[in-house]
Amino acid sequence: MELNQDIMKAVETLEYRVTAGDVAAKTGLNIGQAEAGVLALASATQAHMQVADTGDIAYEFPRQFRATLRNQYWQLRWQETWAKIWAVLFYLIRISFGIMLILAVVLVFAAIIAIQIGMQSQRDEDNRGGYSGGGIGFNPWLWIGRDWFYWFSYGPRRQYDRYGQVGGGRDSASADWSVRNRHDLNLLEAIFSFLFGDGDPNKDLDDRRWGAIATVIRNNRGAVSAEQLAPYLDNANLNDDLEDYVIPALSRFNGRPKVSPQGDLVYYFPELQVTTKNHRPQSVPAFLKETKRRFTSASSGQVSIAIGLGTLLVVGSIYLSYIAADFTDGGFVDLVYSLCDLFLAYGVAFLGIPAIRYFRMQRQNQKIETRNTQRQSLLGKTVQRKLDYAKQFAMETIVGKDNLAYTTETDLIDQEIANRDKIDEEWRKRLESS
Questions:
Q1: What DSSP string runs through 255-284?
Q2: CB 60 within 8 A of CB 249
Q3: Architecture of 1-72+403-434 per CATH?
Q4: What does the alpha-carbon distance between residue 364 and residue 201 come to, in Å, rounded to a whole number?
Q5: Burial class (CB in 10 A: 0-12, 13-18, 19+), 93
Q6: What is the pLDDT of residues 285-296, one digit of tens each?
Q7: In sequence order, which residues have a C-beta less than 8 Å from that of residue 402 and are 6 or more positions away?
Q8: pLDDT tens digits, residue range 207-252?
Q9: Range(s) for CATH 1.10.10.10 in the chain?
Q10: Average pLDDT of 132-158?
Q11: How far is the C-alpha of 350 from the C-alpha of 104, rounded, in Å?
């Protein structure tokens, strides 16, 4: 049996007593999935089933049902363990790109420096009669390497005053800005973010869509017009009388259409009208808004370092392949030289992938903006007479503990004895009405 994590979270959020409609509205799952999932979870955790006088069913779960599941199902224990392991593995994968880049730059420039030293030694041997100064002379690569090492380790150099503040005073605004905008990502994480971005910000779009639609339906006590759902659905067109775009919502939440005497359509959702407590209207976005993609969450300084590292690797690999062609030491330099093409390809890819991703992101954001504008344009189009007609079907059925006809918490005979007065009262009313 596979248990749905979203359903378990919904049960906890709803304080462990739910109906299938409550869970569907909370998770955005279709009614069939929500009902089957709640029933499976109730069976696995020995939850109590409660049947109201109306025939509607609620389930009351033990507050420690997760502990019960862990003891009974090794799959759940493995899922939780694997989630922790994968978090560590994914972090290692993320930082590995930065480690490889920095390691490649270090190897390339170490080989360049080794070649420079070797060439200088050869020149010293060829000019034994002249003054060599006893050293390797001026080497611009050493100065560049020293400055870049400082940048990688400490960031850009800053001027500090006598109080240790950036800028020029104890209350320097620039110092406060530096502290307030300190980024959460370290350099290795920032390199991964620069290279691949931070994932799709709209990966939960369907969950948000159906959650918003369910909330709108519940806020209107289970009866709505098509125009009220249009800002959350795709391909909605209010310029004609066709309301085909509502069909996915009807299918997901078992909606039923009703036609008014004027020929207007409204829709009501019986399962979403059943709940365990009085429903208070909840806030919901006016329309389904997609979030624009962000190029990277790395700071501008970290992006500069990443670009600088990639550039150094490309330039250094080209320069190394040029000067190492006629140089050999039978060891470290030859090894790095053999990897020179691989380093060059990695550097080009490191700079090329973000460039391609940037232009692709621009096109994606344009499409997102178009869709957002289209959904926003559908606001405020509801016809009042439809709303008035929908109110005829708006209702809320509460499965409370005071109107239960049956519960698995106690024996059936005990329930009949406890409900004897209630049963007698119901029969008396039926006889009087006949």
A1: -EEEE-TTS-EEEE-GGGGEESSPPPP---
A2: no
A3: Orthogonal Bundle (1.10)
A4: 12
A5: exposed
A6: 999 999 999 999
A7: none
A8: 999 999 999 999 999 999 999 999 999 888 776 678 889 999 999 9
A9: 1-72+403-434
A10: 46
A11: 12
